[in-house]
């Protein structure tokens, strides 16, 4: 990583791609896991130039939004790079969204052009876009017809390049504007922290409409001259064959993916997995027991980090050589503080809100000045996450401010209870939420899923918690579920659990058998 010119300010994403295409044109950059098609840096540069020319011919100009409803694949990445080359703002949308959900983003983003595939076109409705570009696979002429655009010579690093819509876990989804400098600074810091080189290869199994995949799965390999193999979707059954065939050195994930790989068991010996140096995990805290079991079973350490869309992707990462299970790691090229309600800094081990400041923090929310002012008050990004710092600078998260449970005047942090429940044999997932209670303000409710062949009783879960936790922290209700509600990236949706069970808090030994 030493000597990469974009470590300093002044570069855009298109500049970086052109640099690699010139310095090592034949090096592989993108691989399609489904078809095996590979693109070199030079080929991706030419094809994204062709797409950039197509976008210009369709009326896209500097500052316009280009939305994309496309499956994971090389084409989506090339549209992303083409949009940034001409100063447009790329806004990917989950292809699994309903027309209503897609329509909200299209109406809010107001794109000049919407890129999609024939299979997804009928699900889009007539919202928001001035035009639609239907891409019929990697051989579509839109990638190959036209000369390289010149508009990117006018770009500045502070120009927005991405419009990423948040998950909406605390309300209506907002669009975070991510600049070229945000992207390159965060991706470069990640690459340097992980000590990546051109010999590394990412297995991108996360969805490309999400910051995790676009930053860690694509832009970080780009900044290190590495390659990335893109899977259409995550599959526990197909994951180890992908590793065996394409030999990635790392992969990005969420806790749900690790849990499903554990449930699927150790792959046959002929499926080699020794190329993988580590698994990266974020988007939501990973249970300590899941990380320990994954490393013990597969021999692959899990490097947990922390971040949010509003800080591009990652704000912290664990050390590669000595990760601390349960910790989100140390700050990654940005300032990080833990503050009390009045804004004063908290002492080590004292819980407060995590706030961030640095080059990775977004420019603001698109068309939402009030929300921007609230989120960036005083020049610090208020994360809404609660945690504490240790004396040696490691961050530990205890939950969202909105998830904190107040029972009889006592603050209860769900992460602590969830980690205890995960120690029970057979527990696959655990989520603890607070439900309104007329006597204590809130009741502690635990929702769990279990592996096949296990079925702990609610009473045994409560008894286990009482062995490790103060009485006021222990669940008063336990629900055994067949599946947890999750968002499109596999992130658990606690608000859905609150709504589901808010009227069912009367019996501490109630086994709802799936709710």
What features would you describe in this structure?
This protein has a domain at 411-501: GMP Synthetase, Chain A, domain 3 (2-Layer Sandwich), CATH 3.30.300. The strands form six sheets. Strands 2-1-10-9-11-12-13-14-15 form a nine-stranded mixed beta sheet, sandwiched between helices. The radius of gyration is 23 Å and the shape is globular. Residues 505-515 have low confidence and may be disordered. The longest helix has 17 residues, at 41-57. By secondary structure, the protein is an alpha/beta fold. It has 14 helices and 25 strands. Helix 1 (13-23) crosses helix 2 (41-57) and helix 6 (180-193) packs across helix 7 (211-224).
Silhouette = globular
- Tell me the strand percentage band: 15-25%
Unreliable sequence segments: 505-515
Task: Give the total of beta strands.
Answer: 25
Cα-based radius of gyration, to the nearest Å: 23 Å
Main β sheet profile:
9 strands, mixed
Helix content: 25-40%
- Main structural class: alpha/beta
In the sheet with the most strands, the strands line up as: 2-1-10-9-11-12-13-14-15
